[in-house]
Amino acid sequence: MKYKILSNQWRPQIFNHIVGHKYVIRIIKNSLDLNRIHQAWLFSGIHGTGKTTIARILAKSLNCKTGITSKPCRKCSNCISIEKGNFLDFIELDAASKTKIEDIRVVLDTTKYPPMEGRFKIYLIDEIQMLSKHSFNALLKILEEPPKYIKFILATTDLNKIPETIISRCLHIHLPYITSNNIFNYLKKKLKKENIKINKKTLKIISNSANGSIRNALNTLELAICSTKNKIINTKKINKLLGIFDKKKIFILAENIIVNNIHKILNILDNIEKIGIQYNNIVSSLIIFFHNLSIVKITTSKKNYIINNLSEYNKNIYFLSKKISFKDIQIYCKILIQGEKYMKYAPNPRIGIEIILFQIYQYIKEKNISNKICL
Ligand SMILES: Nc1ncnc2c1ncn2[C@@H]1O[C@H](COP(=O)(O)OP(=O)(O)OP(=O)(O)O)[C@@H](O)[C@H]1O
Ligand SMILES: [Mg+2]
Ligand SMILES: [Zn+2]
Q1: Residue 305: is its pLDDT beyond 60?
Q2: 51 in contact with ligand 1, CB cutoff 6 A
Q3: pLDDT digit string (tens) for 20-70?
Q4: Residue with the nearest Cα to atom 19 of ligand 1?
Q5: Which domains does the chain possess?
Q6: Burial code of 344-363, b = ≥16 C-beta within 10 A, e = fewer?
Q7: Mutate to test the pocket of ligand 1, among 4, 42, 214 (most ligand atoms within 8 A of CB)
Q8: What's the 119 CA to ligand 3 centre distance in angstroms?
């Protein structure tokens, strides 16, 4: 039997199985049950949060033989064909590969023919932001007054690139990031059902590193499962797979940044290169670390009994937070965030990270000199 990757194998087929997006799903379900159906829907959000998945369930809901419903039966021939991907009245189009007006015109020309099997002929246009200006104009015309039997579902990962005129003609629904907590609970439930054993800590790392995308989480999980034959996936393995720098090592790097020991910093970077960790991950880990340090500074009370109850690692964080001002942490975060954005322009990632860390080094050096002058 052909193997289906986890993200396809586990793709939800009904609205109730969608993770997160509670509010959004309620809107969609209500509009179906109340029969208040827009002619064009626009789903925006980062990769792997459910745009295509929701669009396909919506297509079933609109064409299910039991009637327009938020609970498509999944048994009628229309539902089955949509799930199999061979329903003639559900046309999926990737705008990234069909950006030109000639391409889009060919597709839009078919809107004049009514549906062959279903109630509606549905066009799902993915990555809509890739369309050319002329293609957007052609789409705009049909969006204004489509035939009654036509429904459009547009999806984009970059809303800023969609003309306002298009957005205003659609029912725009934004799918926010899925929280790592939601991802964690989802994976836990799924893995239990599938009898795959992964410890909680490792699952937490996978959920946190997914950056709000379930597809990312499932792809990492797939890698993790394939990386071992004995089905034991430990934290070390997953860190290596994800190119994540161990949190204790990030602590040491941050500590040396704070005390401005540039030789030690370069030394650590050399070690990172040997392990094969990606430099972008180091920068984002540092941003998270310094941000957490700000939170520790704001929230941790000076009371001894609280500090004594902290874990060894959190105690170290607490003492490190005493070595730096809140204002300086914010300045480091700003340099790191800006640097991360421009890292891709550096000749290579190593130079990129060095440029960022040299900026912090220079900032501390100048601050120390001006402090001395003031004395
Ligand atoms: N909200 C969600 N609930 C449950 N599973 C999800 C969700 N979002 C994504 N997935 C999983 O991730 C896979 C990919 O999701 P989908 O194709 O819907 O993402 P997308 O938002 O369309 O991404 P892209 O922008 O890359 O096209 C699905 O097959 C499913 O397994
Ligand atoms: Mg998609
Ligand atoms: Zn059905």
Answers
A1: no
A2: yes
A3: 999 999 999 999 999 999 999 999 999 999 999 999 999 999 999 999 999
A4: 48
A5: 6-174 (3.40.50.300), 187-242 (1.10.8), 247-365 (1.20.272.10)
A6: eebeebeebbbebbebbbee
A7: 214
A8: 12
